Amino acid sequence: MSQIADEIKNQIKKRRTFAIISHPDAGKTTLTEKFLLYGGAINLAGSVKGKATARHAVSDWMEIEKERGISVTSSVLQFNYGGYCINILDTPGHQDFSEDTYRTLMAADSAVMVIDASKGVEAQTRKLFKVCTMRHIPIFTFINKMDREAMDTFELLDDIENELGIATCPVNWPIGSGKEFRGVYDRNTKMVELFSDTHKGTTQGEVMKIAIDDPKLKEWVTDTQLSQLKEEIELQDGAGAEFSQELVSKGELSPVFFGSALTNFGVETFLLHFLGMTTSPLPRTSDQGAVDPMEEKDFSAFVFKIQANMNKAHRDRIAFMRICSGEFEAGMDVYHIQGGKKVRLSQPQQMMASERKMIDKAYGGDIIGVFDPGIFSIGDTLTTSAKRFAYEGIPTFAPEHFARVRQVDTMKRKQFIKGINQIAQEGAIQIFQEFNTGMEEIIVGVVGVLQFDVLKYRLENEYNVDIRLDNLPYEYIRWIENTDIDLDKLTGTSDMKKVKDLKGRPLLLFVNDWSIRMTTERNEGLKLSEFGR
Ligand code: GDP
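YS: structure for the whole thing
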């Protein structure tokens, strides 16, 4: 049976690979910085990559991509803390938001959701959350910015439950907010952790803890605050969901923590609990059943992101893969399932805090980027196992912006078609065609509008084709799951559009939610999905 070496097993067991999701400005970067601080990966918070570049305008971003040859917006940060080896997957926000953001979640074993205490659940969190629930991975909530005026605690919890449809279980409970913020009460230990904003960028200084029934607590917490806390806790104990590790593991219950990333309050508490409750790399589904990293001794991984080189002198790309089992060694030969041949994985790299560095070894749970001569596609499997299994593919996510695309110079039809198809194959955009007509009209769909600019830029620079993009009013796309449906007979609303994707699968484009509902009502048995499998 299994001859998996203890060393490999131990390495995998201590891996914790998670993504941080949030709406822009909720504090994802700040929280990540503080995590790194505890890992000793950086001396002073504030040097995490990405922040400065994430704020760059599109043109600057392109320049940066060109200069460095690879993406500065995508990354994985690895550091060690408390005996764990932690991989944080970055999910870009703002204008960088793209399909890659979703795909990144496919590589994570759990997610940390950062919520701004004054705002509750926001749009981007909602979108990313959907992908997490689709995968049933554990989701942890960090309610941030308690040093600012916050929404009522019950309201915040209700918001998460109603908006996202997940039960919550607060591990600690805030005492006041903004100027009145005094700390958090740990429901387990019944201790109050007192807030102090003097730690900021440091790990020094113990957090003061004091029992809830200690008379000295009154030196920090007013009588009103204390009685409010007791009242709230009583209410929560009576009506709230009880903690259950099983439900947390299934992604049905989210442990909630309160804190203030900026002042470094509640961060270590969160990290300690989180690392204990989250999971080491779990089995992943393949066409030959689940592959368990504790049983499969051979190396296996799947590609979840491909970063094209923007420099036309170097058409090479970086393929990011999630290792699912075994040990990776630089320069090793692996079998590329979809390509049907052996390939050598060269120039493996990993992000360590703010630097990209070459690596020699990596293990199940880790993310590596390797040189791709243009042979890999999103979802591909690589393995040294003789069993040659293929991991379950990565779904296609629903684009939300659509445009009709035309080449300016009609003589360049061939380059145009070639370019746009290649860029679509890399997963940088999705392309669609009118259902019953030929290749005449090409519709491009993207998750984030920056992808339009990338398309235009790349077609101009790599294929020498100028294009014109005309925005279309569609905002919703649905894959048709029924295999037996006659698309010609399908009746929708007048503003609905029938298209097909690269694989010839039928899809519907809608302008609004209402049209989707009408169409479902008008066609009995019609099954629509937000994800293309
Ligand atoms: P991101 O867009 O989610 O990565 O958010 P950032 O980490 O960049 O934070 C956005 C802004 O909120 C920055 O100005 C931070 O300094 C600020 N911020 C982050 N965490 C806190 C916090 O706990 N309290 C306060 N008052 N501000 C915070």
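YS: worth flagging: Residues 22, 24-30, 93, 144-145, 147-148, 260-262 surround guanosine-5'-diphosphate (CB under 6 Å).
IM: good catch. Also DSSP finds 13 helices and 33 strands in the chain.
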